[in-house]
């Protein structure tokens, strides 16, 4: 009889999934505790919707293979498989810098994170592509990413976040980035700032002032120079 059913049994499953999403956005480890409470909570706590929307703010960005428990790593793996942008970025970042002789494609993971709306991934992917052999086939994507960051007013913040992550993690950053050479993105003869980014970058280094460039391609050229500065401060093993 309905009168003998508990409140847990009476509520539709999608309500419990939404509750699990709120729990995981507050604490990943609270979700683990919730999943251990009963069979229903274990089921809804493992739904793709929960994995995809987990905030992961309480899990550090240190290399997964060294610093987290197996249960947490398995959770992050499921988040990645569910196209959680934060998990995609974490795995891509981890594989790019922390894992020697990695045979996966970390740039693909970072790009997927960017395509799913992760702002730091947009910045990181854009500067890495310019420094790699993949610029020609990805120019349109990276210009669109940088344009979006500029529109949102988030470009400088993303750069600062990437800088903080790298400089705070120098003890685990093992790999020299796979940088072939610096490419020039803006080659437009009609652009008044094309080719002037090295001089503007030097002025920026001297006074840490703002950079006022309307050309998106030129701004990406400038950010690559700043990224090289960040890398030069890391003592790669």
UniProtKB/TrEMBL annotation:
PANTHER family listed in its UniProt record: F-BOX PROTEIN, OS05G0482100 PROTEIN
Record Pfam families: TPR_27 (PF23310)
Signal peptide (from-to): none
Lineage: Eukaryota, Viridiplantae, Streptophyta, Embryophyta, Tracheophyta
Protein name: At2g35280-like TPR domain-containing protein
Matches recorded under InterPro entries: At1g67623-like, At2g35280_TPR_dom, F-box-like_dom_sf
Record-annotated At2g35280-like TPR domain positions: 69-166
């Amino acid at each position: 009889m309905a009168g003998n059913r508990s409140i847990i049994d009476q509520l539709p499953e999608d309500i419990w999934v939404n509750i699990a999403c709120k729990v995981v956005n507050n604490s990943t480890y609270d979700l683990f505790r919730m999943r251990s409470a009963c069979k229903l909570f274990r089921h809804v706590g493992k739904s793709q919707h929960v994995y995809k929307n987990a905030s992961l703010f309480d899990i550090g960005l240190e290399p997964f293979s060294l610093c987290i428990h197996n249960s947490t790593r398995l959770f992050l793996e499921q988040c990645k498989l569910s196209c959680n942008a934060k998990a995609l970025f974490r795995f891509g970042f981890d594989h790019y810098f922390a894992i020697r002789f990695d045979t996966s494609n970390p740039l693909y993971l970072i790009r997927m994170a960017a395509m799913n709306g992760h702002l730091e991934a947009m910045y990181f992917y854009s500067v890495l592509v310019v420094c790699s052999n993949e610029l020609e086939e990805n120019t349109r994507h990276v210009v669109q990413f940088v344009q979006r960051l500029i529109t949102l007013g988030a470009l400088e913040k993303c750069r600062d976040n990437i800088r903080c992550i790298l400089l705070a993690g120098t003890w685990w950053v093992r790999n020299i980035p796979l940088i072939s050479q610096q490419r020039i993105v803006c080659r437009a003869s009609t652009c008044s700032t094309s080719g002037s980014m090295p001089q503007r970058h030097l002025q920026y280094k001297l006074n840490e002032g703002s950079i006022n460039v309307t050309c998106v391609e030129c701004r990406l050229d400038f950010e690559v120079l700043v990224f090289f500065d960040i890398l030069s401060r890391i003592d790669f093993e």
